[in-house]
C-alpha cells in the first residue's frame, strides 16, 4: 500500500514527531510505500521515504493549516495514496494518532465563551470535530486513558473507532550495566559535584512543560539545598525568557538550557530527579523514560502518563488544582528523601516487567489491517 503520514511540522526532538517516524519506519519495513506530507521539516530526511514539504504561507497559522489540508485532497490521488494517517487533527483522515489533548475540554476549562468563538479556536474545534465527531469515520489511536475519557465526554465518540495503544518507549532509555559510567561521565562533563543534586526538565515546549514552575521551585528550596542543586532544561525551544526568569529569581547560576539532543540516556542516568510540572500534557513520554531509567519523576497529575509514576511507585505526583507551594515542598522533600534508592529500583523493575515498548508495532498492525 501507499500510505500518507501527515503532520503540520516535523522536528527531530518532538515526541509526536518521533512517534510518527517510528510508525512510518515500521510500516516501511513491512514493505509499504511511505509519503510524509508536512509544512516544515527540520533535520535529516529518511532516504527510503518520500518527504513532501508544501510551501504554503498565510497570515495566520490556522489559515495556513486550512490551505495545507485543502491542498492534500488533490495530492492524495496524484500519488495514489491508499490510506491517510494524521498526527494533527484535520479532516480527511483514515487514522488519527491522538498525541494532542482535547482542545474542547481545555477551552471550556480555561477560556470564556467570547474567546472560544475567536476564528482560530473555531477552526481548531472544527478540525477536532472532524476527527472525533459522530459524522466522522476516522479510526483513532489513543495513547492516554485520560484523553479517552475526555473525548468520549465531549464528543460521545463511538468506542468502535477508539483503540488504546500501549506506550512506545525506546529501550535505550532503560538502565543498563553502563549506568554508573554514564552518570560519572555526564556529571563530569557539566561540572556537577558528587554532593550536588541535578534536576532535569526534558521536553520541547518549555512553557507548556511548566519550566517556569520548575524554576520557581528551585528558587524556593532552602538555601543550603538550593546552593547544592543544579537544573538543566533540554528541548527544542527558545530558552531566553527562562534564563531571564532564573536570573530574576536568583538562580541563574544554577540553571542551564540545552537544545534538543540525542544523548538523553546519559542525562537520565546523570540526573537525580525529573521535574515535569506541565500545565497540560496528553501523555508525557519522558515520564516513562525516566521511570525505566531509574530517575525518580515529580510530575503534575494532568500528565497522561502520571498514573505510571504511582503504579510503579517510582516518584511523586502533584494533584490538581495545582499550587506552587505544593510543588516547592515536594521538590525539597524528594531531593533529600531516603526513598530515592527505592524509587529508582521500583522504576527499573517496572520497566523490566511491563509492556511499555510495543506502541509502534500495534499502531502499524491497525493501520495495515485489511
Relevant terms:
Rossmann fold; seven-stranded parallel beta sheet; alpha/beta; 2 domains; six-stranded parallel beta sheet
Helix-and-strand structural type: alpha/beta
* Overall pLDDT level: 96
Q: Are there runs of 5+ residues with pLDDT below 50, and where? A: none
Assign the CATH class of the largest domain.
Alpha Beta
What is the H-and-E element order?
A: EHEEHEEHHHEHEHEHHEHEHEHEHEHHH
Strand line-up across the major sheet: 3-2-1-4-5-6-7
Number of domains: 2
CATH superfamily of the largest domain: Glycogen Phosphorylase B
Give the secondary structure arrangement, pairings included.
Blueprint: E1 2-6, H1 15-29, E2 33-38, E3 50-53, H2 61-79, E4 83-86, E5 95-98, H3 103-110, H4 113-116, H5 119-132, E6 139-142, H6 145-155, E7 162-164, H7 179-189, E8 197-202, H8 211-220, H9 223-226, E9 229-234, H10 240-249, E10 255-258, H11 264-270, E11 273-276, H12 285-293, E12 297-300, H13 306-312, E13 316-318, H14 324-335, H15 340-353, H16 359-368
Parallel strand pairs: 1-2, 1-4, 2-3, 4-5, 5-6, 6-7, 8-9, 8-11, 9-10, 11-12, 12-13
Helix pairs in contact: 1-16, 7-11, 8-10, 8-14, 12-15
What features would you describe in this structure?
It is a single chain. The chain is an alpha/beta fold. It has two domains: 2-166 and 357-368, Glycogen Phosphorylase B (Rossmann fold, 3-Layer(aba) Sandwich); 171-353, Glycogen Phosphorylase B (Rossmann fold), CATH 3.40.50. It has 16 helices and 13 strands. The strands form two sheets. A seven-stranded parallel sheet has the order 3-2-1-4-5-6-7, sandwiched between helices. Helix 1 crosses helix 16 (359-368). The termini are close together.
